[in-house]
């Protein structure tokens, strides 16, 4: 019996993501490009994202059920893990169907002996019944509070401990809870577009959180694909829009150098605010995407390639430098669950150094009275407030005017940090 298409697609996505270090969404796009729209495409995406969101809890359960979990092949654990995700969270799929494809795939990839092991493990999980849906099961079988949180909330223990040390129990639990659900869909209305007001009025009653021109939606309305195509709207996290609002982007002096522009999400948010923006990035492909995005939205932003650490080929100084810096991404695990299984404490330390280099290069560009705006999508004080405090100590001409961090109470499931500094 061959493995059903959706499971084969999901396994390929996970192989690319976990073994080849490809970003999850890029892997999904690459694997599913040739797959017709339909249930297989949707199920493969759900299995890949869902497994990565819940992998910590799943691995904890497998650790209870396998005789030698540390010696078990990662590929075998992955097959079992996806099957466990199905059994626990996809209730419309009969248990026998899940056991059938998983056991057969293990037999195909390994041998009959390992298929019998897989069958025994999955049947043991089924026999545990409702117990595995309750916190007490994990609390009684884990070691310490951080160990329990890591198992129940499916997060590496080093990250749980860092958040506990930095934010305390209540906020850590709120951050962890947010990682387990997909965030709402975000949209930004292009206020410069001729149909902006009509679109804004249409989206207002459909959203559960909003800014003046930004919305969080539980579903993507039928009217939006056309609005995006004609440049009236852009997909962008409302949490990302809110951090720009919180640090006063509309008040920054122009021209603004967006020195880590990427694909241009925040570049064009600033353009829509009426700012003159220059955009740079080290990645040529991202800059091509940024130019395409500008054509869609109706903005002609000057674009050039340079590392964020400089040097910059500028003939005049910007009044504001905006830095959406490379960071560990620990604030967007709800949208990018693969990050938590790839990131390490050493990665975070390396990024802190890189952020320092970028800040120092940007400081030299600004004239007196210029602003330096700094944004991350992470939950790590070393990359956020301590990074800014350290920069201000090193550069006494800069004073911090404003800092902001996303509030778990917003219910947006993503967390950003921002700060604005002024040069005397």
Fold and architecture overview:
The structure is a single chain. This protein is of the alpha/beta class. It has four domains: 5-133, NusB-like (N-utilizing Substance Protein B Homolog, Chain A), CATH 1.10.940.10; 146-180, no CATH class; 183-235; 238-423, Vaccinia Virus protein VP39 (Rossmann fold). Helix content is 51%, strand content 12%. Strands 7-6-5-8-9-11-10 form a seven-stranded mixed β-sheet, with helices on both faces. Helix 4 runs parallel beside helix 6 (112-128). The longest helix has 27 residues, at 39-65. It is globular, with a radius of gyration of 23 Å. 42% of the residues are buried.
Structural class: alpha/beta
Number of helices: 17
Strand order of the largest sheet: 7-6-5-8-9-11-10
CATH fold title of the largest domain? Rossmann fold
Shape: globular
Overall pLDDT metric: 96
How much helicity do the residues have?
Answer: 40-55%
- The topology string of helices and strands comes to HHHHHHHHHEHEEHEHEHEHEEHHEHEE
Please give the radius of gyration in angstroms: 23 Å
Count of individual beta strands? 11
Q: Considering the protein shown, what is the CATH homologous superfamily of the largest domain?
A: Vaccinia Virus protein VP39
The CATH architecture of the largest domain would be 3-Layer(aba) Sandwich
Question: Could you give the distance between the termini?
Answer: 72 Å
Low-confidence stretches: none
Work out the strand percent: 5-15%
């Amino acid at each position: 019996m061959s493995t059903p298409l959706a499971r084969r697609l999901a396994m390929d996505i996970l192989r690319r993501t976990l073994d080849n270090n490809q970003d999850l969404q890029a892997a999904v796009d690459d694997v599913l490009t040739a797959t017709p729209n339909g249930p297989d495409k949707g199920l493969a995406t759900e299995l890949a994202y869902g497994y990565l969101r819940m992998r910590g809890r799943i691995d904890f359960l497998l650790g209870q059920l396998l005789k030698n979990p540390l010696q078990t092949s990662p590929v075998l654990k992955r097959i079992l893990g996806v099957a466990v995700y199905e059994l626990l969270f996809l209730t419309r799929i009969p248990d026998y169907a899940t056991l059938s494809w998983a056991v057969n795939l293990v037999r195909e990839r390994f041998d009959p002996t390992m298929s019998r092991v897989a069958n025994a493990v999955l049947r043991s999980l089924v026999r545990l019944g409702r117990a595995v849906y309750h916190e007490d099961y994990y609390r009684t079988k884990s070691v310490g509070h951080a160990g329990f949180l890591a198992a129940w909330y499916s997060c590496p223990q080093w990250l749980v401990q860092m958040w506990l040390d930095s934010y305390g129990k209540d906020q850590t639990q709120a951050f962890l809870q947010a990682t387990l659900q997909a965030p709402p869909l975000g949209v930004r209305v292009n206020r410069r577009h001729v149909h902006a007001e009509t679109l804004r009025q249409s989206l207002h009653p459909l959203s559960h959180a909003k800014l003046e021109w930004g919305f969080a939606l539980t579903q993507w309305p039928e009217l939006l694909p056309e609005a995006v195509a004609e440049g009236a709207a852009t997909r962008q996290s409302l949490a990302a829009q809110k951090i720009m609002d919180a640090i006063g982007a509309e008040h920054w002096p122009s021209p603004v150098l967006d020195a880590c522009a990427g694909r241009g999400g925040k570049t064009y948010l600033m353009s829509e605010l009426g700012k003159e923006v220059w955009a740079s990035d080290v990645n040529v492909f991202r800059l091509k995407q940024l130019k395409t995005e500008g054509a869609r939205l109706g903005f002609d932003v000057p674009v050039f390639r340079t590392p964020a650490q400089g040097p910059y080929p500028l003939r005049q100084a910007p009044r504001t430098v905006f830095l959406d810096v490379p960071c560990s991404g620990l604030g967007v695990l709800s949208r990018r669950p693969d990050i938590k299984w790839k990131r390490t404490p050493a990665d975070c330390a390396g990024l802190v150094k890189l952020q320092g280099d970028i800040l120092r290069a940007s400081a030299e560009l600004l004239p007196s009275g210029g602003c330096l705006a700094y944004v991350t999508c992470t939950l790590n004080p070393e990359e956020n407030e301590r990074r800014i405090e350290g920069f201000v100590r090193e550069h006494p001409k800069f004073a911090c005017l404003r800092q902001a961090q996303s509030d778990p109470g917003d219910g947006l499931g993503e967390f950003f940090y921002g700060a604005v500094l002024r040069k005397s």
